[in-house]
Amino acid sequence: MPSIVLIEDDVDIRHLVADTLSSEGFDVETADRALPGLELAVKGNPDLVLLDLGLPDLDGSELLRMIRAVSTVPIVVITARGADSDVVSTLDAGADDYLTKPFSVAQLLARVRAVLRRRAPDGTGQTIKVGGLVIDPSAREVRLDGIEIELSPKEFDLLRVLADREGEVVSKRELLAEVWREPYGGSDRTIDVHLSWLRKKLGESSSEPRYLRTVHGVGVKLVDPTT
Predict the structure, then answer these.
(1) Is the dihedral of CA 75, 152, 172, 131 positive or negative?
(2) 109 & 176 share domain
(3) What is the number of domains present in the chain?
(4) Among 37, 103, 150, 156, which is least packed, fewest CB within 10 Å?
(5) Contact 25/48 with Cβ under 8 angstroms?
(6) Does the pLDDT value for residue 216 go beyond 70?
């Protein structure tokens, strides 16, 4: 059973998130302040930490740096701070993902599962299936309707990120951060070109999409074309 430490001072959000995660089979411990949360995150050896930035005793960004200094535990930041500067500094400080309040429970669960899959040790990554598309993260292999397709490393990483968040629109900013590690220094054109190459290998085009659906002005999502 994966264990999660939730550090959140808002009692309503803390209870809602903890109850939801528990109902999904996660072992959840909570803290409403930074220092008790730090102890849980370091000594409890959890599989993942959910961290709010607006804590009463210490700013969450400082707590993030403290945890990251002694642990590689995956950290997903959940916060009301949505400014670009906050996103950049938080990712640069070592967060694995960033979710802005208000968020849906379904979106939070998807992010948690995605981060846990990405951090799975080699050889234990779960196979991801979306329609006739099968992605093996451990072998870095992709099959479409039973036929293996050759992808470049970046094409594979791009597809993997989208598959981890199946059905969810992922912004180009997020793709730059997760695939190219360039939250704001990269070019949208880079993503457009790689998406074009990926579409061709999946046997589709932007005008006749199947798996890759562009939401103009928002981002792109991977969907099961059979549903």
Answers:
(1) negative
(2) no
(3) 2
(4) 150
(5) no
(6) yes
